[in-house]
Paraquat-inducible membrane protein A
Amino acid sequence: MSMPGNGSLERLPRARQLGVTGCEACGLVSEATSDPHTRCPRCGATLHSRRPDSIMRAWAFLIAGIICYIPANVLPVMYTSLLGNHLDSTIMHGVVEFWSSGSYGIALVIFTASVAVPCTKFLVMALLLVTTQRRSRWAMRERARLYRLVELVGYWSMLDVLVVAVIAALVKFQALSDIEPRIGILFFGAVVILTMLSAMSFDPRLIWDVEEND
């Protein structure tokens, strides 16, 4: 059975053209109405043809996440005390310390979760928002895949917070050493939550709306 080509896919009718709306919670397709408070008959979630103020909300959460990312990297995330030596460590300092001590796996996990993933999410979300606002037809399928990728990797960003918590729990068992989280880890947790909210606020259906006006 052959799959339809790009041209035939583009000619398929949209849900709004058919007068129906899909529930984002359970997937049930219902008849579209003009009432903004219409609820799904199956799960009770509010039905929206498009998420209200999607672009504005996504930008707000994204900018807030970028702002929080600065203190998350500048302020210490971890305090360590070993044999009388006291040290407040930032994220990058912790990466360097773990790498220098031979803990390459932990260093890579922290660098990926705290630097590579957040920066990638900032860039991808900014790209999606700018191109959608400009009603660009550029690489629409690829942009939709990027959005799904951001959703997929977003939950793994908490690995950095988890690593600090696990290390703190392990070190507590040693009588001559101590470790405590610092204020920077709260800002990093805020970055993770805000970028997740930004991705959740963005409506990927807006990417394809430009085709309806052709």
